Amino acid sequence: MALNKEKVTAIVTKFGKNEKDTGASEVQVALLTERINQLTEHCKQFKKDKSSQRGLLLLVGKRRRMLKYVQRMDVKKYRSLIKELGLRK
């Protein structure tokens, strides 16, 4: 269920300033989104896996807090990030 190295490097190069920029807020939100998508598929398949459901809710809360931070710091980055990840409709 964890992200493999190729996906992580692809996300980091897409959202970061360079391939080593894993600490940027945009990169962290994108990585959290990928993990949330994978965990959502897992929870759809295994409905009684309550610990994974709890982990999913924790990740969603963490992503929400990170998005609030990005929105406070730079609204343009926030809007582009939301659009690129497809989070809001």
Mean pLDDT across all amino acids: 93
Overall shape: it is globular
Q: Tell me the distance between the termini.
A: 27 Å
Q: What about the largest sheet?
A: none
Number of helices: 4
What radius of gyration results from the CA coordinates?
A: 14 Å
Helix content: over 70%
Count of beta strands: 0
Estimated structural class = mainly alpha
Roughly what fraction of the amino acids lie in strands? under 5%
Low-confidence segments? none
Order of helices and strands: HHHH
Describe what is shown at a glance.
The protein has 89 residues and is mostly helical. Helix content is 75%, strand content 0%.
Structure description:
The chain has 89 residues and is an all-alpha fold. The protein is 75% helix and 0% strand. It contains 4 helices and no strands. Helix 1 packs across helix 2. The chain is globular. The model has no long low-confidence stretch (mean pLDDT 93).
